[in-house]
């Protein structure tokens, strides 16, 4: 198929064929990563700007590595070391940099809609690397990629997403991506961490507050990072109680299917969201998710830059 979107701002609205096209393209780049010299000339002469207005280790590194694996030039940008710290607006910053002939912009920002705001105002393509609690589309794609590698398909599979649903852009992209490919979804967590409008926004997604009940039929369990920096006061009694009710422990895994897939987008608060024995155990695809991230981001940058692969 031929890709028709200028940007990747979210998984909402993408078709099954479009998501599958990205995953299939990522499969080809995943093989590239196994080569002695994991480098292809696909984006030689292109310049990718990575703009991270929020702290990031794995996503920023993964995007930079993906662009370099495609032979693109990569320009890094951080809020603290830029003119933003002197009061320059987001749009002025991007326009200034675009005038230097940037081909693509990868942006993470704390404000939902920041990526769309930029995409509507510049000629370069834009990839949303996380905008507030809205979406994190490449995380959703790499989660799909890692699970497809393990389970093969999503039809009649059941995904349980556990934790801080309210503040999670990861959860929102996962819901759009996994449901589009045929999975059933349950979100689980304290009622105070599931937004009041959730049922109206996602009528086909089940909600559950009892983790032990939710995990019994799960084929995939996605543990979310507890975003303490975004919490208001009083959303749950204590970390100790949260851990007791919602941590994926080795003991709790005994109640799940033997081949259940355990995921976490990272960074992990070990012992709070997931025990080390589970995060590093045979059901975990946590490291596979990280590896998939480079291949998926290579695919996204390649497709948006105008690459075409025959299927």
Automatic annotation (TrEMBL):
It comes from the Bacteria. This is Aspartate carbamoyltransferase. Coiled coil: none annotated. L-aspartate binds at residues 86, 169, 225. Its EC number is 2.1.3.2. It comes from candidate division TA06 bacterium B3_TA06. Keywords: Pyrimidine biosynthesis, Transferase. GO terms for molecular function: amino acid binding; aspartate carbamoyltransferase activity. Residues 6-148 form the Aspartate/ornithine carbamoyltransferase carbamoyl-P binding domain. Carbamoyl phosphate binds at residues 58-59, 108, 136, 139, 266-267. GO terms for biological process: 'de novo' pyrimidine nucleobase biosynthetic process; 'de novo' UMP biosynthetic process; amino acid metabolic process. GO terms for cellular component: cytosol. It is an enzyme of class 2 (transferase). Pathway: Pyrimidine metabolism; UMP biosynthesis via de novo pathway; (S)-dihydroorotate from bicarbonate: step 2/3. Belongs to the aspartate/ornithine carbamoyltransferase superfamily. ATCase family. Residues 156-303 form the Aspartate/ornithine carbamoyltransferase Asp/Orn-binding domain.
């Amino acid at each position: 198929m031929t890709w028709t979107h200028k940007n990747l701002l979210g998984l909402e609205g993408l078709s099954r064929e479009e998501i599958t096209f990205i995953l299939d393209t990522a499969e080809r780049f995943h093989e590239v990563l196994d080569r002695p010299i994991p480098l292809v000339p696909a984006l030689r002469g292109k310049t990718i700007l990575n703009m991270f207005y929020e702290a990031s280790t794995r996503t920023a590194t993964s995007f930079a590595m993906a662009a370099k694996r495609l032979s693109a030039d990569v320009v890094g940008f951080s809020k603290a070391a830029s003119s933003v710290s002197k009061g320059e607006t987001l749009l002025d910053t991007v326009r200034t940099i675009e005038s230097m002939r940037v081909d693509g912009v990868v942006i993470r920002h704390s404000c939902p809609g920041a990526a769309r705001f930029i995409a509507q105002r510049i000629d370069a393509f834009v990839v949303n690397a996380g905008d507030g609690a809205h979406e994190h589309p490449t995380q959703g794609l790499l989660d799909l990629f890692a699970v497809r590698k393990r389970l093969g398909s999503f039809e009649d599979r059941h995904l349980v997403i556990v934790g801080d649903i309210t503040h999670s852009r990861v959860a929102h992209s996962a819901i759009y991506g996994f449901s589009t490919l045929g999975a059933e979804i349950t979100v689980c967590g304290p009622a105070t961490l599931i937004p009041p409008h959730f049922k109206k926004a996602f009528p086909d997604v089940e909600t559950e507050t009892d983790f032990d009940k939710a995990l019994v039929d799960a084929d995939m369990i996605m543990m979310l990072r507890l975003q303490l920096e975004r919490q208001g006061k009083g959303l749950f009694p204590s970390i100790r109680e949260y851990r007791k009710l919602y941590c994926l422990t080795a003991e709790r895994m005994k109640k799940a299917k033997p081949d259940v897939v355990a995921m976490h987008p990272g960074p992990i608060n070990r012992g709070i969201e997931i025990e080390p024995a589970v995060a590093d155990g045979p059901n975990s695809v946590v490291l596979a998710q990280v590896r998939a991230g480079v291949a998926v981001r290579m695919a996204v940058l390649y497709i948006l830059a105008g690459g075409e692969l025959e299927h």
